[in-house]
Every structure is written in C-alpha cells, then in structure tokens.
Amino acid sequence: MKKLQWDFYSKDTLSVAQNLLGKILVHEINGKRLSGRIVETEAYRGITDKAAHSYGGRRTNRTEIMYGTPGFSYVYMIYGMYYCFNIVTEKEDIPEAVLIRALEPLESLDKISLNRYNKSFSSLNKAQIKNLANGPGKLCNALAIGKSENKVDLCNGSLYVAKDDINDFNIKSAKRIGISYAQEAANYPWRFYIENNIYVSAK
DNA sequence: ACCAGGATAATCT
DNA sequence: GATTATCCTGGTA
C-alpha cells in the first residue's frame, strides 16, 4: 500500500475531502499497523468559512500549520478531552484542511479496542464495535493520535493515508456537525460520507 | 429510541 | 472569562 503524496493533498479542499473517502488511515506504532478506512470527512475552507479556525485569516500558534504545506497533520484538542485529526490541503498561505470524522476499523483491532475501551476486541458487542471510530474524537483515541501527531508530514512518516483502489461506493454530502455558531456557513453541505456505511457518525 | 446535561482544559479575547 | 470542528451517561418513553 502506497502513501498518498503531496500532489494528492495540494488540491481544492472540497475535492480532497471527497477523494479521501475509501482510503486507509494508518498509524504505525512499534511496527504494528493500526488502520481504518476513511468513511466520513468534512471540508474547512479557511478565510471565508466562518466555521474554520482560520476564518478571516486568523493566524495564531494553533492555526499556523494550516497556512503551511499540504499533506501535514493538524491535531487540536477540543472540549478539554478529545483530539480532532485534520489534514492540511491547498497550498502554502491558503489555510484550509479536511477533518477526518469516521473510520471503519481494519487492522490491529485488538489494539484499537484496548485504546478505546481497555477491553479485548472479542469481548465487544455490536454497538461497541460500531462505536470504535465513528467520530473525530473516537478515531483519535482508537489510532492513538494525540498532540505528538500534530504538525507531522503525512507523506513521510509513521502516520499516513494509504491509497486503496476501491470505488464501489456512493458519496453523500450533508451539513457539517457541531458548528451551529457559524451562521450561514453552518448550512454548507461540506460533510462527505460513504452511503450506507455503518461506521458513519450521522446520516 | 430519544433527548438533556455534564465532563474538562487548551485556546483565544 | 468565554468558547468549543465531542462523547457518554442517565433520564423518560
């Protein structure tokens, strides 16, 4: 499986958000591959997007990475207890990113289950399996993504997105989640997900 | 099934 | 001091 490279991420954010669906997010830890298929994403379109951290050109320590090279990670803490994992898109000085919202767990299921519930995968019920990574905070927990994974190069390291040639799914779009403060931007259909996939966080 | 409310701290103003 | 790109629990039905 090949790591997606710079050219994949250096496109307009709405395209990258859709193109990421079906790809595999991989975190290699001590030679073990923790991975899941990306089934839900959201686009955050920088300067003109009231829901984006970089809205209006806001440039702080936290958002600085969004102004940098595409293909880097942007991980931030939210609500004091969860991390969200984003991938920087576009080009330098255009502060846009894609939030990864949900994964279908694929490899190292036991490790993923331990990270989430401190239980072995075989002891999980159906609901617990579904809830392993169907949300931005959950998937960070599942794949052990935290602040040390902020600002890393996804084209060259132990955290990356791998190409996968599956195409047999439909893409649906919908309003983004958790941004009701963002006025008209709250209604933009910039959330994308794989139709009928049970690991999507919301319909 | 479906709410309502609370946990909890980094970040920004 | 206010806000927050979330998740879980415990109530009612």
Automatic annotation (TrEMBL):
Superkingdom of this protein's organism: Bacteria
Keyword tags: DNA damage, DNA repair, Glycosidase, Hydrolase
InterPro entries on file: Formyl_transferase-like_C_sf (IPR011034), MPG (IPR003180), MPG_sf (IPR036995)
Family: Belongs to the DNA glycosylase MPG family.
Single GO term (MF): hydrolase activity, acting on glycosyl bonds
A Pfam family per the record: Pur_DNA_glyco
EC number(s) given by UniProt: 3.2.2.-
Lineage: Bacteria, Bacillati, Bacillota, Clostridia, Eubacteriales
Signal peptide segment: none
Protein name per Swiss-Prot or TrEMBL: Putative 3-methyladenine DNA glycosylase
